[in-house]
Amino acid sequence: MALKHNRSWYTKKLVDIAKWCAKERDMNVCQWCKTEVSGCNAHGSHVLNVGTNKSMELDPENIKCLCYHCHMNKWHKDILAAAEWFKSEFPDRYDYLMEMRKVKLKIPTVYLEELYEYCRGGKSKYPQKYYEIIQRIMKETEK
Questions:
Q1: Residue 6 in this model has a pLDDT that exceeds 70
Q2: Which of 5, 21, 82, 106 gives a 20 to 30 Å CA spacing to 12?
Q3: Is the pTM of this model over 0.90?
């Protein structure tokens, strides 16, 4: 059966869902300044940039909630200080991200479709299904 959409369509939709899940996990609080945020002031910001770490863009652990000010004036202004801040605030997530960036998994488009279709029943289901698919891909690549 043919896919309903192309890879970039699924990726765009799933990035939006992953960001929503990260903001929910962080209870819509800026992780840097601890201010409650909403609407356009609530940014789902990638920890590892997508340009260099494309395989990590859908991972909710690679996304944090930041307010506009902290995102633009702290996170993007001094990336080394930002990385040190993240490492000290979230050491387990930092270690996980450093390991996963080495793996460089590419999720097949058919799995992106599966993930998207599964999450149509509720965005909050995304993280569990995402990690299930990642585990499946890792097992497949071991063979």
A1: yes
A2: 82
A3: yes
Looking at residue 64, its amino acid is K
Q: Dihedral, CA atoms, 55, 57, 62, 64, nearest 10 degrees?
A: 170
Three-state DSSP class for 76?
coil
Q: Which residue, chain included where needed, has tokens 């896919």?
A: 3
* Chain-centroid distance, C-alpha 1: 29
Over residues 54-106, the pLDDT tens digits come to 999 999 999 999 999 999 999 999 999 999 999 999 999 999 999 999 988 89
Query: Torsion-angle region of residue 37: left (phi > 0), alpha (psi -120 to 50) or beta?
Result: beta
* 3-state secondary structure at position 58: coil
**What is the distance between the alpha carbons of residues 26 and 41, in angstroms, rounded to a whole number?**
14
